[in-house]
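Changelog excerpt

This revision adds worked examples to the README so contributors can see how folded entries look when concatenated. The first example is reproduced verbatim below.
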Amino acid sequence: MEYYRPIVMTDPAMPAGALVLAGGWCWFDRVEVLSRKAAPRVIAVAELPSDVRARLSAPRAAMAGLTFDVPRLMGILNVTPDSFSDGGQFLAQDAGLARMRAMAAADILDVGGESTRPGAALVDAIAEVDRTAPVIAAARAAGIDTPISIDTRKAAVARAALKWGANIVNDVAALTFDPAMAGVVAAADCPVILMHAQGTPQTMQDDPHYDDVLLDVYDWLAARIAAAVAAGIARDRIAIDPGIGFGKSAAHNLALLRRLSLFHALGHPILLGASRKRFIGTIGQADDPQARMPGSVAVALAGIAQGVQMVRVHDVVETRQALRLWFAVSRGEEP
């Protein structure tokens, strides 16, 4: 099997014959062909198989009313006592609502009630609903109309969140944790984000191993997309996330980030969630997760330069400012 990674460009001088990547802000005229059995090689877009060409160039379907002709920022709201970066800060409903208002520059608000940091304990679904549903309901009652994603692995939590105003299910287990989750998403006809993870939060950082992390994650996501479609979820409702930091070493994370554009060949919007993670602290020499904003912004912009449609971030205001400047310099415009 061969895998096709667009070599992504943002230069204003786009040559004849180049293709716009996924209907977005990047283009490509060459593709790196990867294989488990042969050395990588580079080909021109004219040599692409027609189905691959279509998947790489077709505009991505909108999610919750958001188009992907520009990058979208997903702001993180952890209503948990133990998240690695901001555990306990927004557990109270008024604090959570204030955090949502402070993230007004976000395109999506991602609400989670269970920490999935390495070593985190499983949270009962009832407790998770009690943490997430009230703040979602309060946000809607307060007139906050930004699309909301519910960050959960559990069908009961997703069902309650959707009832109270969430628009998107963001499942870090890609529908593998709870057998009922696919049915909830299909019945609601809502967008779902399928994330790759190796192992559980309790075990995922215990010496993770891959034959080829880039291709293994790609194949796993392709299989989860197929499973979601087989369960009745519309293909144009699916986004994917390579799962930076979930069962991956720092070397694995960097290998994925360097060739992140490969995942466009799956034909779905891509979410990148790397904000404040341990490898950023290690490379950036910042032990405190809250001191990792500059490194997190750097990784977010590197993903956007490869055409990633969504970035999940703690530091919304700072990332939005950086994104405006990146677009002004690279594109001569604002996103």
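The second example, added in the same revision:
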Amino acid sequence: MTRALVLPSLADLSESLRVVSIPMRVRFRGITVREVGVIRGPAGCGEFGPFLEYRPDEAARWLAAAVESAYAGWPAPVRDTIPVNATVPAVPGAEVASVVARFDGCATAKVKVAERGQALADDLDRVAAVRDVMGPAARIRVDANGGWSVKEAVAALAALAVYGLEYAEQPCPTVEELREVRIRLARRGVDVLVAADESIRKASDPVEVARREAADLIVVKVAPLGGVRAALRVVAECGLPAVVSSALDTSVGMAAGVALASALPDLPHACGLGTVALLEGDVARRPLVPAGGMLRRVDADRLEVDAELLERYAAPPDRVGWWHERLADTYAALSVGRHTVQP
């Protein structure tokens, strides 16, 4: 049975909203400071952190996810611990060791490639350094964020495949291009799986990827899909193996990602839920960072969001005002949408 998501009033959300601005340890996808809003409700805290360029209609799913966390909680888990991967931004090879060291015990790494202004040689240098630092048994996956054409993707993945890739995430922007990359890699005998990320979380029809046989697996993120329950439905409808990933969340948002990973029927791959380690600070007294390559599930009402940390990383007044306006615009977009949750 499905029931409509009952939104709290905008006044209630605005009253509880706390906006933080946390510096990044390293530049990540062009971001040096992560701004998010934290709301509190009867079930705990939720994170409202759509990236700054997102329009209200895009941000509406992020607000739905935050409201789910704060007001409804999450489905029952089938596991309590989640294997996670290290995340390596588009840094020079010489900096890889210091980045990997922040992800305690992780045996899988996701490496950013196809960075604007860089060349394939930079990607090869970075992936080679990851393989050298983590050893022959580690799993390495690359993430292009749709930065290649089909021709570039096939050539790059053929070159990178010598390092033993687990999969390539969103090598090209469109579903049709992903499908073509899969076909061309198979014809060339290049054994690299294709994963869809943006083609899931930014799509009006996330299941198109599976229907068009454009990916071998999917990457799902709680906030862009509208919450844990909504993401579970997408995974079920796609019928493909799923990797749960984050969107540069604080521990509040990360807890929702862990809740999703803990509720999936199958979890064949390590999840991209270790990125709190890329932030200089956090809002939780005990940040959700991997220990021994694992994260433990924590209920929203048990995550200790610290008032002192909220104050320490509080955004400047002009940015707080901007986020309150954004919350109002996004609330209006969400109110006219058809966002639902399952009890």
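Reviewer comment on example two: DSSP finds 13 helices and 14 strands in the chain. Confidence is low (pLDDT under 50) at residues 338-343.
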